[in-house]
Structures are given as C-alpha cells and as structure tokens.
Amino acid sequence: MRRFHVTVNGQAYEVTVEEVQAAPPHPPAPAPPKSSGEAGRAIRAPMPGTVLEVKVAPGEAVTGQSVLLVLEAMKMENDIMAPGPGRVKSIAVGTGDAVNSGDVLVIIE
After folding, report:
1. Domain-located, residue 21
2. 30 pLDDT higher than 70
3. What φ, ψ does residue 62 adopt, rounded to 5°?
4. Looking at the domain assignment, is residue 10 inside a domain?
5. Residue 45 domain-assigned (yes or no)
6. pLDDT band, residue 28 (cuts 50/70/90)
7. Which of 3, 21, 20 is nearest to 12 (CA)?
8. Is 17 within a domain?
9. What is the pLDDT of residues 73-87, one digit of tens each?
10. CATH classification of the domain holding 64
11. How many domains are contained in the chain?
12. Residue 101 belongs to domain spanning
C-alpha cells in the first residue's frame, strides 16, 4: 500500500492506494468470416459511414500505401488503405453508399 496527499477544490486529503496486478490481456478476437464465397482478403468498414469516393478499380494493383476509398464518418473523411500488396478483385460499394461497421468494402487477392 502507498500513501498519497491529494488536494481537491482546496481541501487536502490523505489517501492510501493498494497496488494490484493488471488483468491478463484479452485473447485476440476471432477473424471475421470471409465474404460469401469470394476468395481473397475482405477489406471491411472500420466504422459506420458513407462512401465519398472509390479510388480503385477491379484488376488494379495496390500496395500497402494505396488508398482504396474515402469513408466519411462523424463528419470526418477517412482514407481506407490496402493492408498490403495485391490486386483488387472486386468492389462491394459505390459512391454515396451507407455502410455499417464490418461491411465488406473491397476484396483484394
């Protein structure tokens, strides 16, 4: 146990704090299922929002720095980037589409 002096709104208090061990980390979440039979990596919406612009086309090669689309969420524009190199297999959304968290946006093979 450790003792501290704390002042709140001009009033001094002496408090005793007991140190406890941190809780063990949570196990990793299971990977989301692949989209309906499509082979490749499904890039999913990280949050609900509206697709402002699709910046890639099917068949286009992408890198880990490639912006796939722009998603507006909470009045902010968010670039959704490719997780690594690949080729765009299909695009599941279009400009103006509303998406929910976890919806498939793009399939990369």
Report:
1. no
2. no
3. -130, 160
4. no
5. yes
6. low
7. 3
8. no
9. 988 999 999 999 999
10. 2.40.50.100
11. 1
12. 39-109
